[in-house]
Amino acid sequence: MIIKKVVFVMLLGMFISCQEAPKLHLNYTSGEAFGTTFSVQFIHAKKIDHSNAYDSLVDVINSSMSTYINHSDISKINQGDTSVIVDNHFKNVFAASKKIFKETEGAFDPTVGVLVNAWDFGPKGKIMKLDSLKIDSLLVSVGLNNVTLEEGKIVKRFPNTFLDFNSLAKGYAVDVFAEFLESKGYENYLVEIGGEIRGKGTNLVKQMPWKIGVEDPNFDNTQSYSKVILLHDEAMATSGSYRKYKLDKEGNRYAHIINTQTGYPLKSNLLSVSVLTNTCMEADAYATALMSMGLERSKNFLGTHKELKVFFIFENEKGTLETFAVNGFPED
Prior knowledge:
This protein is of the alpha+beta class. 33% of the residues lie in helices and 25% in strands. The protein has nine helices and 15 strands. The protein is globular, with a radius of gyration of 23 Å. The N and C termini lie far apart (57 Å).
């Protein structure tokens, strides 16, 4: 009799447990933001739509740091308005930029935008020769060391210095989306904006880790992914020279990334750099910096920055594509 009661209690417990187990939903939202697309996935027992919240976050970040909006804070600053009090988003990105600018010895520099604009980079455009005197005059205003944040206001040593956070703003927006999801208590999510990604937990609906692809460097603007990796509580960003580049008369390809020392576009065999690290903002910024450094200098830098897992795609002397993984970037 006692045994029967025990069995009954066990069966009852199993029944209640099954009844209480919630059905999990993969909540998915996609849209347009920052001149590209975004997607958000998270696991929850209910179907929930946070579209309005995502739109609000995009509006706030754009109002702070979009160089494509004339009335944004950064545009006003670039236009010479010294009265702008920047918000916390701007402060966060500025502080990270200062840190990475110093660590990379200027390879990452958000003030180089004036030269990017001068070279008039567009997809597959031809190299336009700029007068060396013009380049020298523009270089005077380049250098994040000449920009400070004092009592909430940006102070520029040279009035013509042009701030542009596009090289890490998308990554920062990914982090902002991720922090919003975590504030709601979601422990399993994947956020992607324009190819920059951050994930946490796993896809519990499919019972497997989040999978992401490393894009192939296709010069015909097609997309393909020959490498797929599992994302474990990290962020990944990729910088490449295969979408924005120019050709000179000899057919040499120049990346849209400008050498901050010379003021000229970077001629490099490095096609793509993917970085895995804790935040997408840092991954985004370091990917840009490493592209600017080139392969050999990047290898030396990464020897003292083990927290950065990096995957390079480059052309060898024969014009054949090769890959190189550093600091434990997953091979498969």
